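Support request from a user on the community tier.

User writes: "When I paste my structure tokens into the form, the page sometimes reloads and wipes my input. The last time it worked, I copied everything first. Here is what I submitted, just in case something in the input itself triggers the reload:"
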């Protein structure tokens, strides 16, 4: 099952005063290990802030990413969302050939170094004098900047923070769920996870408490199931709160294309929606192990013998374990690392874009991927041609046809064609 997610507005690495937000498209970009990563749905959902120990910033990074994902998921053809996951994998979507770009909203908004900017449902968060609001795709301010923190819009709502409490607004800026929660994340598959005290539960768009505040950690629903934590173990529940997969795992990712990555002791394997072990516990953890990326385009990147490769859903090795790091496929291409440099391979493991970059991102459906060299950022097309010069202080992935750029501390937006 493939999903289009788009981290659509902003999501923050840390919380204080920042916007940990969103997506609503196909990917979520973020910077880790000096790499311009873009996270797929499984990765985002797999973000386990609980695994980050007492490091508050990193815990919030995970939460922001997760949330981001939690907020926006648009199933593509062949996706079901039922509890069985489906496991349907479409052929990789053809990446268009892009040759030009245009600045459509001049850089004018405050840039927050810990925030990522994306459009979702026609809205993107912006910061003015330290407060957050939203603009539309024409750059018009449609929701005034009055919030301390915001998440991306999904299913018509966005979680926002005023003072120490969270509530939800609609795309017109009207408060539809009051500021009653200690933490809140946007709607996913009709439910949002919220926090009261030290426990988590789920509400619907009418603010009905659907699943009680009884969990120590939670994530958003994916393919009809959500991973939740009781004590020191993770399991999965359905939208009624019924336990579907027992609480027996040290850590887990979310379901993607019918399988979820799960950890037992210090190795990873994959289960189906009934909890059956489909791919044995063989694979090693990583320094950034809390981004539990799963299957995408029919393949998952896993680590063995200190190197990364790709397996299919039968557990067969499709791309050998030769890379120093790897990320999910998108549109038939995946960013991988050899030594200190990054490039792209296809499903056959053939190098299609050479290892010349310091950072790489996924190819968005707009046909470009963000890359960086020597702390400057731009975009390349599927042939490896630079179409947006690698000269910006920062760029963010495309969503709703636009991508944010940063110039001298100000945020603007570009389009490509």
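"...and here is what came back when it finally went through:"
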């Amino acid at each position: 099952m493939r999903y289009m997610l788009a981290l659509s507005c902003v999501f923050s690495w840390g919380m204080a005063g920042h916007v940990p937000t969103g997506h609503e498209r196909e990917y979520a970009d973020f910077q880790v290990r000096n790499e311009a990563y873009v996270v797929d749905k499984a990765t985002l959902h797999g973000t386990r802030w609980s695994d980050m120990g007492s490091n508050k910033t990193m815990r919030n990074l995970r939460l922001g990413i997760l949330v981001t994902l939690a907020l926006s998921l648009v199933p593509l053809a062949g996706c079901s969302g039922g509890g069985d996951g489906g496991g349907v994998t479409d052929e990789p979507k053809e990446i268009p050939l892009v040759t030009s770009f245009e600045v459509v909203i001049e850089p004018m908004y405050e840039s927050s170094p810990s925030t990522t900017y994306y459009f979702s449902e026609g809205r993107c968060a912006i910061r003015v004098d330290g407060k957050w609001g939203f603009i539309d795709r024409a750059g018009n301010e449609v929701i005034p900047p009055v919030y301390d923190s915001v998440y991306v819009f999904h299913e018509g709502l966005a979680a926002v923070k005023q003072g120490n409490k969270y509530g939800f607004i609609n795309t017109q800026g009207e408060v539809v769920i009051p500021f009653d929660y200690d933490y809140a994340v946007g709607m996913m598959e009709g439910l949002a996870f919220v926090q009261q005290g030290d426990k988590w539960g789920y509400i619907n768009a009418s603010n009905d408490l659907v699943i009680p505040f009884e969990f120590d950690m939670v994530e958003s629903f994916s393919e009809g199931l959500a991973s939740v934590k009781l004590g020191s173990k993770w399991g999965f529940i359905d939208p009624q709160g019924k336990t579907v997969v027992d609480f027996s795992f040290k850590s887990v990712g979310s379901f993607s294309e019918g399988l979820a990555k799960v950890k037992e002791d210090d190795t990873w394997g994959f289960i189906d929606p009934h909890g059956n072990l489909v791919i044995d516990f063989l694979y090693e953890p990583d320094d950034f192990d809390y981004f539990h990326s799963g299957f995408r385009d029919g393949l998952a990147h896993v680590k063995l013998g200190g190197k990364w490769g790709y397996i299919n859903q039968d557990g067969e090795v499709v791309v050998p374990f030769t890379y120093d790091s790897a990320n999910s496929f998108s549109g038939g291409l995946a960013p991988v690392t050899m030594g200190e440099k990054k490039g792209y391979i296809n499903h056959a493991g053939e190098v299609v874009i050479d290892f010349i970059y310091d950072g790489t991102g996924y190819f968005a459906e707009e046909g470009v991927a963000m890359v960086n060299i020597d702390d400057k950022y731009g975009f390349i097309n599927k042939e490896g041609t630079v179409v947006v010069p690698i000269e910006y202080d920062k760029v963010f992935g495309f969503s709703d046809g636009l991508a944010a750029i940063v110039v001298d501390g100000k945020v603007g937006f570009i389009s490509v064609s």
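Agent notes: The reload is a front-end session timeout and is unrelated to the input. The chain is about 5% helix and 45% strand. Residues 3-90+103-303+391-416 form one domain. Escalated to web team.
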